[in-house]
Amino acid sequence: MSDKIVYEKQADYTHRGCPVEAALDIIGGKGKGSILCILLDQTMRFNELQRTLTGISQRILTKQLRELEDAGLIHREVYAEVPPRVEYSLTDKGQSLRTIIMELHKWGRENVLDQTPQEKAS
């Protein structure tokens, strides 16, 4: 496989011509990056995720989890208990993002979070 980036222009201007846009369509969105980071090394219940992800509503968290599940990146396990217990974990496809997520984490820390206000302005 070649390392050359191929972009095929599409008349409808969707992500179909760019694999990067296609990937970002799936993993982009409020809280999705954090969800993926959190689930890299652990399985969590919905309420645990919600407590960990401050600033995201229950409705949005539910929506993002469903989208990640529909994309095949996370697995939702429902246990037949009273009260019901639901756990989320990454699928093999989700785990295949590990290197990318770790690099994005590193880049964000070095180039966004750890910068002084003056560095951010330049």
In words, what does this structure look like?
Residues 18-116 form the HTH hxlR-type domain. InterPro entries: ArsR-like_HTH, HTH_HxlR, WH-like_DNA-bd_sf, WH_DNA-bd_sf. It comes from Hirschia baltica (strain ATCC 49814 / DSM 5838 / IFAM 1418). GO terms for molecular function: DNA binding. This is Transcriptional regulator, HxlR family. The chain is mainly alpha-helical. It has a single domain (15-107), classed as Orthogonal Bundle (Arc Repressor Mutant, subunit A). The chain contains seven helices and three strands. The protein has a three-stranded antiparallel β-sheet with strand order 1-3-2. The termini are far apart. The mean pLDDT is 85.
